[in-house]
Amino acid sequence: MSRQIDLEGxxxxxxxxxxxxxxxxxxxMESVAPLVPxxxxxxxxxxxxxxxxxxxxxxxxxxxxxxxxxxxxxTAVEFLHTASLLHDxxxxxxxTRRGRPSVSAHFGARVAILVGDFVLARASQMxxxxxxxxxxxxxxxxxxxxxxxxxxxxxxxxxxELPEAVYLEVIGRKTSSLLATCSEAGAILGGVTRAExxxxxxxxxxxxxxFQLVDDALDYIGSEDELGKPPLxxxxxxxxTMPLIAxxxxxxxxxxxxxxxxxxxxxxxxxxxxxxxxxAELEPVRELVVRYRGPELTLERARACIGRAKSRSEPxxxxxxxxxxxxxxxxxxxxxx
Length: 337
Hints:
Helix content is 75%, strand content 1%. It is built from 17 helices and two strands. It has helices at residues 7-13, 15-28, 35-44, 51-62, 68-92, 103-107, 109-130, 133-155, 164-190, 194-221, 224-227, 233-236, 242-250, 253-268, 279-291, 294-311, 320-334; strands spanning 96-97, 100-101.
């Protein structure tokens, strides 16, 4: 049985670097428009696990680099992640984020979109300032890929026939791509071989798949206190995720018809999230998903992804950084939010 991982132990190793990242995040939200730093304070003070900067900093250390460029690039990828959250909360109509009002709920959707654009521009500026063409390429490629993932997911909303392969394509593009970029950027900073760079990119990709699989499982079995947002949000928005896909494969024809009817009811409210069904109306589907072990099967898939991620680290010798990367991977599948 895996030992319980405390994220604090991982962050302690990178305490000084992470403090610099936090400082750069605050500085990056400075603007002639007073609303920008106000939104920045609201967003940054909401916490967050900083998994993406952690991954990049650990990967760069694993590859022998500890210089200031890692701080710069780690800040940029966290800004990219933040921008995606600001935009996602508008698309999803999310009222809460990390247990507090989302920016779109607190400041309005227009502010969230515009500040999200500002944060994305700041991330891009920092990558250009770094000046490495390889890092610039994977950053811009990831930006495109993440956008495609979100669009693909939206286009297949409310679809009980969604193939598992398409679901994996969605989560790979919208989540894994950025974590793969974080670990690959660390490898680029360290100047390692192409094979080692690819191995770390694959590590991040599998970590991202696991991260999203856990998120999707928790949406069905987590509480609002644990998640920092209401559960069943994905289902209400018509997102067909792995727990539901696993259930649809195993349930009876009558139960599948019941699920299909509920998804159609959600779809009839339109893609405007504010019109989503009440969570109580979604409870029968949640009960089916739990009965058919949808969350358990999803978490098993996540653990398998972590196993594949760890196997990709074979080219690297044992070190404090490698052990911390493994701990980060274990934390991803152990977390409750």
